[in-house]
Design a protein that fits this description.
Length: about 220
């Protein structure tokens, strides 16, 4: 989101359908009246978002949507082929789960500067990680099958592709805008690229994932 929003001709908002808030670029509306009004009519909220976007002097407008945020919105998106879709998934589920556990433990989902949170290790049992990664993997597997058959202008990206050379030019080409040299996300990575360094009990994690045949997830992701 932040990378796209750094382009002068793109406005990419935050999680409009986060269960706890309406997340905009510059603020979060957490009050119950706003959230309840949105949840009572989520399709109307999305339509109003895009209607308001028509007034902005940019070429592309969108918002971040997570699978699991709102089933009515997901269904509406799937039935609206003139909406462009960018689907980002992550092959390394151990990395994905550890990132989520760390962020959710302190409700710190993103940050722009390095602090003690970045080096803080997480305490979690292997079976808990297994429980969560299977849920993520199942969601991705099921949605991928639906995504493949959609008539939308769409692109599916694996997490590591976002950091590959030439990605900015690639995503700009997909969106039909000229590359912007100033495109850069201000966010910093919240965990070590050495996956085992993220855990207080690395030996237990290493043994479990090696035993189940996922030792590849223990390697540096980037």
């Amino acid at each position: 989101m932040t990378l796209l929003n750094s382009h002068r001709q793109i406005d990419c908002s935050g999680e409009q359908f986060n269960p706890y808030a309406v997340v905009n670029v510059s603020d979060k509306k957490r009050d119950i009246d706003t959230v309840l009004s949105r949840d009572a009519a989520p399709e109307e909220h999305m339509n109003a978002f895009f209607a308001e976007a028509e007034t902005r002097k940019v070429e592309r407008v969108g918002f971040k949507f997570m699978l699991g945020h709102n089933i009515r919105v997901l269904d509406h998106l799937l039935k609206t082929p003139d909406v462009t879709l960018i689907y980002v998934h992550r092959d390394n589920k151990l990395a994905q789960v550890s990132s989520w556990i760390k962020a959710s433990s302190e409700r710190k989902w993103a940050q722009n500067t390095v602090d003690e949170h970045v080096s803080k290790k997480i305490q979690v049992a292997p079976r808990k990680v297994s429980h969560i990664w299977h849920e993520y993997a199942t969601t991705d597997a099921l949605f991928s099958r639906v995504f493949e058959d959609l008539p939308h202008h769409k692109i599916k990206l694996e997490y590591r592709e976002l950091f590959a050379p030439g990605f900015n030019e690639r995503i700009c080409g997909f969106l039909g805008v000229q590359p912007d040299r100033k495109m850069k996300s201000p966010l910093v990575k919240q965990g070590s690229n050495n996956i085992l360094d993220r855990f207080q009990n690395p030996k237990a994690i290493e043994n479990y994932f090696t035993t189940i045949g996922r030792a590849d997830w223990l390697e540096p992701e980037l």
